[in-house]
Design brief:
The complex is a heterodimer of chains A (276) and B (326). By secondary structure, chain A is mainly α. Chain A has 13 helices and no strands. Chain B folds into 2 domains: 54 residues; 227 residues, MetI-like fold (Orthogonal Bundle). Classes of the chains: A mainly alpha (276), B mainly alpha (326). Chain B: It comes from Devosia algicola.
Amino acid sequence: MLWSYTKTTAFYALVLVIVVISVFPFYYAILTSFKSGTALFQVDYWPTSFSWDNYISVFSQGAFPRNLLNSVFVATTTVLLALFLAVTAAFALSRVRFRGRSLLLMTILGVSMFPQIAVLAGLFEVIRALGIYNTPWALIFSYTIFTLPFTVWVLTTFMRELPIEIEEAAIVDGATPWVIITRVFLPLMWPALVTTGLLAFIGAWNEFLFALTFTSSNLTRTVPVAIALLSGGSQYEIPWGIIMAASVIVTVPLVVLVLVFQRKIVSGLTAGGVKG
Amino acid sequence: MSSETIVPPAVVLAKPIKSELLSQRVAAARWFLIPMLVALAIVAGWPLLRSIYFSFTDASLTDLYNAKFVGFKNYISWTTLKSGRTIYSGLLVDPVWWNAVWNTLRFAVVSVFFEAVLGMIVALVLNAEFKGRSIVRAAILIPWAIPTIVSAKMWAWMLNDQFGILNDLGLRLGLLSEKVAWTAQPDTAMTAVLIVDVWKTTPFMALLVLAGLQMIPKDIYEAAEIDGVHPVKQFFRITLPLVRPALMVAIIFRLLDAMRIFDLIYVLTPNSSATKTMSVVARENLFDFDKFAYGSAQSTLLFLIIAVMTALYIWLGRVRFDGGDR
């Protein structure tokens, strides 16, 4: 009896530790973002003071609102582009037998493992040649390297599971492959599209290396770069309150999305991760 | 009689229709694949080839097009002095590069080790039935959802030497005797990076392992229970062997990811040679030090290392596929 009590207590203690460690840094960032002045440099474990100062300065100083817009635009466009290219490709890779299919799938999987740095020099040249350096298009262009293989791979695994009977019925009715995709499969694929789209969106929203390299002015940066480069009057004067406010603004939409779509994201991650 | 005249044409017709349909589908498939393949060729294939090409030239950031081919000079070259001494130069004898290689390997192995162990523990907890499981699952998704740059900044603030909460906590609990400048000191910088990375990526590992755990049939445990097998023994004899394929794939996947780490280190411990990884030094050379060709050589080497590991991953993945467990 005692032993079983100890076991239950130990288990819940472990659960508590996991939850606290997972949530605490974010909680502490929120706590810090509402402090201002000297309160910032007092270590507090619970909310003691409350002020909107940091949020006001994030939105009034510098280019942060513009950076936010850039991030939204870049991530949304990247995802739409990737999904558009991936749906048809996934149909071909999952429903049609042709020679070299598995080799092609392996190549796509390989590209998703690419270290970004390996293409950085070449991409820089291409982006300069296209004249899109320091524009959002440079990022939309370069992000395709990781969003496209990922979406193709996950949508292929999803389409493979769809029953063949649906497709056969459509073929008997004389539907072309294009009609099958747009009229038969797409309506069935909304859950998968939402999941992959969301994961690709998070990837594009969080990307740093390309965003740092292919943009060079305050107005074209995305939020991760803006946050990384936020600095105060001097090297020793890091504006922690403002950085935390900006961090909270960027993270809250993601956390809400992730919590709302929890189950879908977990299944999408395992499809994209374990299988590829 | 009439049926005899109808049947033969139907049989004759059936085959061409089917193969016509098939070839129509294959043709459509080709058209469907072309946009994706062209896109991947432009954003991945061509830039990769150009990067490799640049590594054999003397290209500089401001002058990409007049680059001259210099062979392996960026990788290794030597000159023999009049005294007979040979001086080697180039990437393969560059201590800064080998320091970065060592940092990357150390980071990858240690972080993935802790992520695997802790991810296993979290996955086992999530696999148990208890009240509030959905809350725990939601909570562990938070570190994963936070952008790397943001988590680097959050932890930089928590690890701050003067005002950081972790120093405060350590002093209060008596774990630290004095405040530590975690991210600035060479001997703790790597620890700081590891803490943040493990915090951020363990959830991912846990979810992958959890997916593997949930595929283990429950009746195996019931049988073990009846036979009176101790839970610890159950873990090592049943759970671990059965979850190993999923765990291995997750580990290799994470290793590949850890090998290319850039953002966390760039933001958390800038300019610390104790943590600079291959990606960090390569980008430095490419864009900050105006040694474009040299940086290209470094990224090419990193690509080769990761390509070998990827081949290994795909090979292992296929072994599992043929193993027929799915």
